[in-house]
Design a protein that fits this description.
33% of the residues lie in helices and 21% in strands. With 433 residues, the protein is an alpha/beta fold. The two termini are 12 Å apart. 48% of the residues are buried. The protein binds guanosine-5'-diphosphate (GDP), 6-O-phosphoryl inosine monophosphate (IMO) and magnesium ion.
Length: 433
């Protein structure tokens, strides 16, 4: 059976956790393909709230195997804490979660360098999550990273750590004026995790392909979002991996012919955490209300998210870059109390109108949104059970977003719970699903 990619269509926090959890009902494997514990995916089941950072959002279904694939960066301390937390809540996480030996490790010096690099940038800092993500991926690209498999071979682990640490300590002491890190201390800590994590180590490529060949369905769950993509996002205000659909192929180790659905998750407005350009950002009372109603505070860092009106230029861009087959629209309920709603359909800069993502960063930084204004619906929609029962203004708004994004809206989410999801187009992921 073909695979489905779930990708953030904005700057992250679109509701990928909720969408993955909801759609995983009929799937066998849920695979995280990039990023690390910079992600924070919220899943709500009944009255229980789960905030997942590294563990795939399919974990809440006993029939799903959660897989951490090659493209992810793993902080083993965080991984253990998360697994322990899930076990404490009655889930057999250690037995079910699988991790690729090729996934890279986040080391203590990566976290330290993330802090130091940000500090050195001063006002120009990116506002990273300070989890060591950028430095870990940089080491991967420089071919001096340590991988998950290295945890289970003490000799190799020590050899690689020694080589890496030699260089890192030069950096820490000579450039950043810090104390060097101790090899023994790091080795003891990390090798100490090995016993408890050994059971997770799996040939995930083999597992994914056996699953596909056996007719099972898999979901590839993205972290972050299209506009945070290292290659296609608003560089340099991006993360250091590839959240886009293409990243699911490299990070998950599968070819394009296996994928038949690419679902872009998008809010009915847009948010961003951390620095970087944001054309539709709101600085007024409307923005304050949107932040409060939407509970727009980061799942990982608790930072207040910046908010703005839906940006259709970016939605069309995300559609193209990912080849979306569907949109999963979230947080429509958050807009219920606004009298007028806006959608940016284009940008204006220096007398020119841009309907597509501008070719030069400077234009994007100074782009002024061209808005279309439509009436709101002014009533609570969180209890609606059938799409056709939404107020006509709400349905018109969804039609407008669909027309502007040029991708079909299949699901509309009207609250954080699994049940608060309306099906607008009946096209199940798996036959009969
Ligand atoms: P992710 O990183 O893409 O998984 O998204 P986050 O979990 O970081 O942020 C999304 C937040 O919105 C979470 O608190 C979800 O519980 C919540 N959420 C998801 N869908 C909806 C929705 O349709 N309405 C409302 N009000 N909240 C939602
Ligand atoms: P989920 O998966 C929103 C942002 C950071 C910063 C930039 C780089 O929950 O959607 P990094 O620590 O990755 O080097 O930070 O990326 N960022 C996110 N923003 N949601 C996320 O994940 C994010 N992960 C990273 O705020 O601007
Ligand atoms: Mg999040």
């Amino acid at each position: 059976m073909p695979a489905t990619i779930i990708v953030g269509a904005q700057w992250g926090d679109e509701g990928k956790g909720k969408a993955t959890d909801m759609l995983a009902d009929t799937t066998d494997l849920v695979v995280r393909y990039q990023g690390g514990n910079n992600a924070g995916h919220t899943v709500i089941v009944g009255d229980q709230v789960f905030k997942l950072h590294l563990i795939p959002s399919g974990i809440l279904y006993p029939h799903v195997t959660p897989v951490i694939a090659d493209g992810v960066v793993i902080d083993p301390k965080v991984m253990l804490e998360e697994l322990d937390g899930l076990e404490a809540r009655g889930l057999d996480a250690f037995a079910r979660v699988k991790g690729s030996g090729n996934a890279h490790l986040i080391m203590p010096y990566h976290r330290e360098l993330d802090l130091l690099i940000e500090r050195r940038l001063g006002k120009a800092n990116l506002g990273t999550t300070k989890r060591g993500i950028g430095p870990a991926y940089a080491d991967k690209a420089s071919r001096v990273g340590l991988r998950f498999q290295d945890l289970f071979d003490e000799k190799i682990f020590r050899q690689k750590l020694e080589a890496a640490l030699h260089h890192k300590n030069e950096l820490l002491t000579k450039i950043y004026n810090r104390l060097p890190m101790d090899l023994e201390e790091i080795a003891e800590e990390y090798l100490g995790y090995a016993d408890r994590l050994q059971g997770l180590l799996t040939d995930t490529t083999e597992m994914i392909h056996t699953s596909l060949e056996g007719g099972q369905h898999i979901i590839l769950e993205g972290a972050q979002g299209t506009l945070l993509d290292l290659d296609h996002g608003t560089y340099p205000f991006v993360t250091s991996s590839n959240p886009v659909a293409g990243g699911a192929l490299t990070g998950g180790g599968i070819g394009p012919r296996h994928v038949d659905r690419v679902i872009g998750i998008t809010k009915a407005y847009i948010t961003r955490v951390g620095a970087g350009p944001f054309p539709t950002e709101l600085f007024d009372e409307v923005g304050e209300r949107m932040t409060d109603i939407g509970g727009e505070y980061g799942t990982t860092t608790g930072r207040r998210r910046r908010v703005g009106w839906f940006d259709a230029v970016l939605a069309r861009y995300a559609n193209r870059v990912n080849g979306l087959t569907d949109l999963f629209l979230t947080k429509l309920d958050v807009l219920s109390e606004f009298e007028t709603l806006k959608v940016a359909t284009a940008y204006r800069y220096d007398g020119k109108v841009y309907e597509n993502f501008p070719p030069h960063q400077s234009i994007f930084h100074h782009a002024e949104p061209v808005y279309e204004e439509v009436p709101g619906w002014g009533s609570d929609i969180t209890e609606v059970e059938d799409y056709s029962d939404l107020p006509v203004e709400a349905r018109d708004f969804v039609d407008l977003l669909e027309e502007q994004a040029q991708a079909p809206v299949t699901w509309v989410s009207i609250g954080p719970k699994r049940s608060q999801t309306l099906v607008r187009r009946d096209v199940p992921l798996v036959p009969g699903g």
